[in-house]
Amino acid sequence: MIDALIQLDRRWIFLAMFLAVAIPVLLQPELPEQPTPIVQSVFDRIENLPSGSRVLMALDYDPASRPELGPMTRALTRHSALRGHRLFYITLWPTGVPMIDEATDILETEFADQYHYGENYLNLGYGAGQEAAIKLICTDLTKLFPADSRGRPFALWEIARGVNSLQDMDLTISIGAGYPGTKEWVQYAATPYPAIDLVAGVTGVSAPPQYPYYPQQLIGMLPAIKGAAEYEAALAARYGTAGEALPALLDERLAELSGPQRTRESITVEMAEAAGIEMAQVRRVLDGRINCLPRAEIKAFARVLEIEAEAILNAAIQDGADYSEDRDYPSNYLNYAHSDYQDALKRMAPQLSAHLLMLVLIVLGNVIFFLQRRRGVLP
Amino acid sequence: MKRTIPIIIAAVAGLVMVVAFFVPPLIDWRETAEEWFNILAAVAMILGGASILAMHLRRISDQKRGWGFSLVTLIAFAITLSVGLFKVGVPPMAEYPDRPWTGEYITHGAPLWWIFQYLIVPITATMFSLLAFFVASAAFRAFRAKNAEAVLLLGTAFIVLLGRSYAGTLLTGWVPESYAALTLPGMTDTIMGVFNTAGQRAIMIGIALGIASTSLKILLGIDRSYLGNRH
Fold first, then answer.
1. Which CATH class is domain A37-239?
2. Of A34, A212, A361, which is closest to B204 when you measure between CB atoms?
3. Among A211, B84, B88, B101, which has the highest number of CB atoms less than 10 A from its own CB?
4. Is the separation of the CB atoms in B161 and A363 below 8 Å?
5. Which residue of A has its CA nearest to B24?
6. Are residues A231 and A282 in contact, defined by beta-carbon separation less than 8 angstroms?
7. In whole angstroms, what is the distance from residue A298 CA to residue B123 CA?
8. What is the per-residue pLDDT for B95?
């Protein structure tokens, strides 16, 4: 047995790692996360900024780190948009430009009603020069970015009014995978210019060197995919409601009403028309991505589904919606506790099994090592 | 002359940066130096491209082992460069429909976007993912408790690996709130926030002192290694 383990072909280890990651990816078990203080600091900072504050996001990473850093970029973008902040995107990595596009896609889809290019978000694209670029924009933003990524002069955009340098931003977010990255933002922006408030999101391997900067130079940090998962959990707790009562009720009524004359699809169209909303929005309600509805929408749905509006309201309340004191919700109030918006949380199960496998392999390796020693094979 | 002028440029630019940090009225000088740096950084990218071209062309002409890979590199380089530079397949901006080349070079659906999305993204993600397999293999074959230091390292790895996953919460979730520091996530936070921070600070201060001394040598023209081997 031991001899077999000593001679173990490493392809078996590769297979074990593949299965350890692939099985949870396919099964998608949900693991709860609690935000740690270092992550909560980032959340609180964005949450407590007054609506309309200027936030600069530096996405200094490429596709290799996208699986690890993409989820936190999305979560931070969503949170900033939910708070109504004005967003400026830049990258110091030439291959980082499409990372900005991924973030702005969220604003153009989930926040299409509130967010308009040049008014409350701007893509400044790639800036060459690594740390020198950071130093330059600390005193003059237009010297590095005279125009946005579309080639229009920076000063002509509405969002650019009153912005001369990085010091005019209310918060700078550095999401970095290496050089130039968070370390350079700390050394050349946050440290020499105390007016620059900096938070960061980093990869697992680059997280340990950033810890000495917290909490002085870095207000908070999202270390690796776990940091992103904790942030998503904080976002879900504040801007999401768990529960399946509303989707279950609507699904049940659709099943009861649908037949040869009135199909499920046609009833959904009726719901969209009655509420005056897009079909895509009704689908989001049906699959739970929206579960806090405006009262007007509840009444419209109730008419089409031939049930009491009270029943829909109660189901939404059961899921966690709050209609006390005449509270109402906007039409596009997304449920950030829905798994569609929890990319990082979904990856915590594969991470857990991969970590456990690593521990098993370390133990196994050491057992073999000590047995070999006992046999006198090793000194 | 070939040596003296670069040394003077380096010394003047470096001194301007140092002095401007302490003398705020000289901040304009510093900004000018930084702008020059950015221009040079952009030019360096062109030089880098030219260097890749020259190196691989040499490999192909010499028919060195693996020259086929050089050929693939050059073809990929040429295609990506021309597609991006000439904005192939990029529609003009909506505001200027009759002006070609006004669209964003990485417009959704354009060839450069396609290259990025379907070649660069999966290739780099694959390379990065391979790390997990090699780390697992290394954990089995190399992570041995050979001495006291290795035992400490192993213990730390165990705590952090468990503490940074749900296993830590699951295994030590029963520990009362007042003893949270003794849970696996609590111990992980202590390791990262205390031991790691102390070690990192020591390394960072050491590096900073090293950088300061090397920078002084460069500014004073003592260290000329940045000029190349011949100097």
1. alpha beta
2. A212
3. A211
4. no
5. A139
6. no
7. 47
8. 78
In CATH, the number for domain A245-335 is 1.10.260
The residue of chain B nearest to residue A378, with distances taken between CA atoms, is B146
Average confidence (pLDDT) over A302-317: 91
Token pair for A80: 């900033």
* pLDDT at position A379: 66
Given a cut of 80, whether residue A45 has pLDDT beyond it is: yes
pLDDT tens digits for A266-299? 999 999 999 888 888 888 888 888 888 899 999 9
Measured between beta carbons, the chain A residues lying within 8 angstroms of B21 are 192
Question: Which residues does chain A have within 8 Å of residue B132's beta carbon, measured at their own beta carbons?
Answer: 17, 21, 354
Identify which of A236, A192, A200, A246 has the alpha carbon closest to the alpha carbon of residue A220: A200
CA angle A354, A357, A359 (to 5 degrees): 115
* pLDDT in the model for residue A7: 82
Phi and psi at residue A67, to the nearest 5°: -60, -30
Residue numbers in B near A133 (CB within 8 A): 38, 41
> Given a cut of 80, is residue A377 above it in pLDDT?
no
Q: What value of ipTM does the predicted structure carry?
A: 0.81
Q: For residue B41, give the nearest of A62, A66, A130 by CB distance.
A: A130
Residue A275 near residue A282, CB atoms below 8 Å: yes
What's A199's DSSP letter? E
Instruction: Pull the structure tokens for residue B26.
Output: 């000289």
Min Cα distance B86 → chain A (Å) is 16
Domains of chain B, by residue range, sit at 143-231
